[in-house]
Amino acid sequence: MKKLIMVAAIGALAFAPPSKTELKFNLKPGKVYHQSVTIFNNTKQTAMGQEMEFSSTTSSSTYFERKADADNGAAYDMWYGEMSMEFEGMGQSQKFSSTDTAEGMGSMLGKLTEQKFVAVISHTGTIEEVRGLEELIQKAAGEGEGGDQMSRQISESFGDVGLERNLEFGINIFPEGKVKKGSSWSKSHYSNSGMPVIVENTYTLKAVNGKTAEIEVNGTFSVDPENATGDMQGMEATFFFDGTRTGTLTVEIETGWVISGTLNDDIGGSVTIAANAQVPDGMTVPMELVNTTKISGN
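RE: above sequence
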């Protein structure tokens, strides 16, 4: 009789539904969390028969401290640590860092570090609201024509929109409700490639290892149809791009904090410049972009 009961119990376990895991962005109060995101980009383009290659590296260090509950999420005090941007191409190079002491872009970034602002973030990782960041950028950049230009450049990379796009890699990644191993869910993001590109990411829970979960990322790129044509240095430009994203994220299950991750983007397409005074016949510039994003958190 005991053997029959044991066999029945084993059979019940074999056919039991797999357990589900709740994954959500829910940092603990009283602790400061630190995240580093570094984006490496290599771009090749051909214009007027000449092939050109450019590379850039953008790094940001961001801190989070939970301060208050909010609808379906929480409000966090946030601030930037060290930030840097580096560009190389056509035999020239530029580098800006928040540790620079000379006046310029670097020192502007330096004025942003350790300056707190507020972000309301939902449990699924959506940034619902950002308060005080753009004001900090305007203050850091100063007034006047030069200040306005620097303000725009810094805002694109580290302002409200830049913040959302930088943090989407490791925050806006969570499903609605619990999921089991093998489950997939999808989200749309704007790419941080500098082009009007949308990436449709599919996330799959590949493994649960004790206190952490491994999430596989697969995505496809396409041009935002509402912004396919826009202004590029005073000229009308129409963009066409598509491509793929692959990667893996390791997440702390209890808080949703990304401990580590790597995302690889391979994007191809072109920019067509309409006929204008500078380019009377117009032109189409084929482009290839390869991005690697590294994320680490503690």
